[in-house]
UniProtKB/TrEMBL annotation:
Domain of life: Bacteria
SUPFAM superfamilies named among the record's database cross-references: Trimeric LpxA-like enzymes
Gene3D superfamilies per the UniProt record, alphabetical: Hexapeptide repeat proteins (2.160.10.10)
Protein name according to UniProt: Gamma carbonic anhydrase family protein
Stored Pfam families: Hexapep
CDD domains for this protein: LbH_gamma_CA_like
PANTHER family with a match to the protein in the record: DYNACTIN SUBUNIT P25, GAMMA CARBONIC ANHYDRASE-LIKE 1, MITOCHONDRIAL-RELATED
InterPro entries linked to this entry: Hexapep (IPR001451), LbH_gamma_CA-like (IPR047324), Transf_Hexapept/Carb_Anhydrase (IPR050484), Trimer_LpxA-like_sf (IPR011004)
Organism, scientific name: Prauserella flavalba
Amino acid sequence: MAIYALGELEPTIHPDAYVHPDATVIGDVRIGAHASVWPQTVLRGDNGYIELGERSNIQDGCVVHCTRKDPTILGADSAIGHSVHVEGARIGTGCLIASGSVVLNGTVLEDGAMVGAGAVLSYNSHVPSGHIALGVPAKTRPNTSFGPEKIAGVVDSYVERAKRFRAELRRLD
Ligand SMILES: CC(C)(COP(=O)(O)OP(=O)(O)OC[C@H]1O[C@@H](n2cnc3c(N)ncnc32)[C@H](O)[C@@H]1OP(=O)(O)O)[C@@H](O)C(=O)NCCC(=O)NCCS
């Protein structure tokens, strides 16, 4: 597993979290219970810190970074889809950032906010609770597309998937 200290900065990973062996976790990264991190994702806490709340997931191929001024904080019960780049953002509880999005420094997603697939949120964007940000550059509107029950479904499925991977994943090469 590629989990690195950087000087005195060391990841803190809850024993009930799942970090896939092909994910890379560096420095001050804090991962909560039943959270999961999937293959080819890089979490680099070299300036500032990255926090992943309980039951949240960061799916395959994501890049998550932070700065001293802007840590990246993902609340509980939230999901970051495949191939997402997040840099110094605060993401609340019950949020979803869908595939291929870019979320830049100082951005805030309130609890239950969503980012649609392929969106770009520039510096200091703000997505209110119950809203979705869509497009490039992203525009925000009430989320009538993908409600909180669907976000919870994604979160639950990844909590269960992590249990399966912990029990059944075997490397064959
Ligand atoms: C936002 C999303 C849910 C689609 O919503 P939707 O309401 O079904 O979208 P519709 O196809 O009805 O389109 C509604 C409008 O939004 C636009 N739209 C839909 N998805 C969009 C996107 N990702 N980016 C920009 N615009 C989008 C459509 O072009 C349409 O615009 P119009 O009204 O001007 O014609 C989908 O794009 C998305 O991001 N899904 C995420 C899925 C996901 O992450 N699942 C979990 C994986 S683990």
